[in-house]
Write a structure and sequence with these properties.
This protein is an alpha/beta fold and 301 residues long. The protein folds into two domains: 45 residues; 245 residues, Rossmann fold (3-Layer(aba) Sandwich), CATH 3.40.50. 43% of the residues lie in helices and 16% in strands. Strand 1 and strand 2 form a beta hairpin. The chain starts with a helix and ends with a helix. The structure holds 2'-deoxyguanosine-5'-triphosphate and adenosine-5'-diphosphate (ADP). It catalyses: dTMP + ATP = dTDP + ADP; CMP + ATP = CDP + ADP; dCMP + ATP = dCDP + ADP. GO terms for molecular function: ATP binding; dTMP kinase activity; nucleoside diphosphate kinase activity; nucleoside monophosphate kinase activity. Pfam families: Thymidylate_kin.
């Protein structure tokens, strides 16, 4: 078949052949009508080093999930002309010590979808542990949150990423004096960003060991991250009971069960530190006592 083709037409053909020493070569041949093929080029094929990031992740890493202060900072610097509020956020970020170092007291982060009981639990933990209660994004950024929530993912997520670095500065300071309880931190930023960016089903999420779940090397690492999970119907009941205006993302969570599952699965895949998952469906008192036991075990408190 190929021989007939070669004799009748004039064309270039590339084939791959291996030499006796096991090397792989790309052989380019040229055929003229009715004549034997002529080798016109031969290239040695070498194995390329594995790319740092899988191609499918390139639209996530440092475009919706940021792994360094500089990367997030640079995005808001580019926005200063079109979003004047960026200047004020950058000024606050300038004041925070990059690579904030954690103090000697434990830092405990409470994560979870809206209405899983984070606010309730963190307030109780603050009282019992006589600690500091912080949140991300920190209060100093609250006035601009709606402004950046209206921006495209690249900018919005850079805002939240800088919020984590500013919170880290507060965490470092407070953890020198007492235990610190944090209501949402990098897990929320990464989980919501990944779940929003990755279309399709749960299977479309980057695999559990993907670098996309890697904790930023320059971001203060907490001692314990607790992920509160609640049955969807119980969460909906609590949301209703709370009667608070839903965020755009929360409305999305309610309307889109798959998005909610992707957020939760992304939370679970983040490593170093990974979340410790707690069923927060029981009563406030039961959830509180289970988390206190966890803190005693993990943080020797
Ligand atoms: N804190 C925080 N929220 C994020 C981030 N990315 C997306 N979100 C979404 C999660 C929530 O649907 C929404 C509001 O989250 P927050 O917990 O900060 O606000 P709020 O305290 O009103 O909600 P919650 O206490 O969780 O019911 O923003 C992020 O990086 N940090
Ligand atoms: N363990 C619990 N059992 C029943 N209701 C709860 C529990 N924890 C919190 N709630 C109620 O559910 C609603 C949402 O709780 P909240 O702490 O605001 O959640 P989040 O901060 O995660 O959004 C509130 O009305 C709160 O009183």
């Amino acid at each position: 078949m190929l021989k007939d083709l070669v004799k009748s037409e004039e064309f270039h053909l590339c084939t791959y052949v291996s030499s006796e020493d096991g090397k792989l070569w790309q052989q380019c041949v040229w055929s003229q009508r009715g004549k034997e093929c002529t080798e016109v080029a031969k290239h040695y094929i070498t194995v390329a080093a594995k790319p740092e990031y899988h191609p499918t992740l390139l639209n996530i890493i440092n475009t919706v999930v940021y792994y360094s202060f500089e990367d997030a900072y640079r995005v808001l610097q580019e926005c200063k002309e079109c979003i004047p509020e960026s200047k004020e956020v950058l000024e606050l970020a300038d004041q925070c010590m990059k690579n904030s170092t954690k103090g000697r007291f434990p830092v405990i982060v409470i994560e979870g979808l809206d209405a899983t009981g984070k606010t309730t639990l963190t307030q109780s933990l603050q009282e019992i542990l006589r600690g500091a209660l912080l949140r991300s994004p920190p209060g100093c950024l609250s006035q601009w949150r709606a402004r950046f929530d209206a921006e495209p993912p690249l900018i919005r997520r850079a805002f939240y990423a800088l919020g984590n670095y500013i919170s880290a500065c507060d965490i470092a300071r407070e953890s020198a004096k007492s235990p610190v309880i944090v209501d949402r931190y990098w897990h929320s930023t990464a989980a919501y960003a990944i779940a929003t960016e990755v279309g399709g089903t749960l299977e479309s999420l980057p695999s559990s060991h993907s670098e996309v779940y890697r904790w930023p090397r320059d971001l203060l690492t907490p001692d314990l991250v607790v992920l509160l999970t609640v049955r969807p119907e119980e969460r909906a009941r609590r949301l209703l009971a709370r009667g608070v205006e839903k965020t755009r993302e929360e409305a999305e969570l309610e309307a889109n069960n798959l998005f909610r599952q992707k957020v939760e699965e992304a939370y679970r895949r983040i490593q170093d530190p990974a979340c410790v998952v707690i069923d927060a469906s029981p009563s406030k008192e039961e959830v509180l006592s289970e988390v206190l036991l966890l803190i005693q075990k993990h943080c020797n408190l």
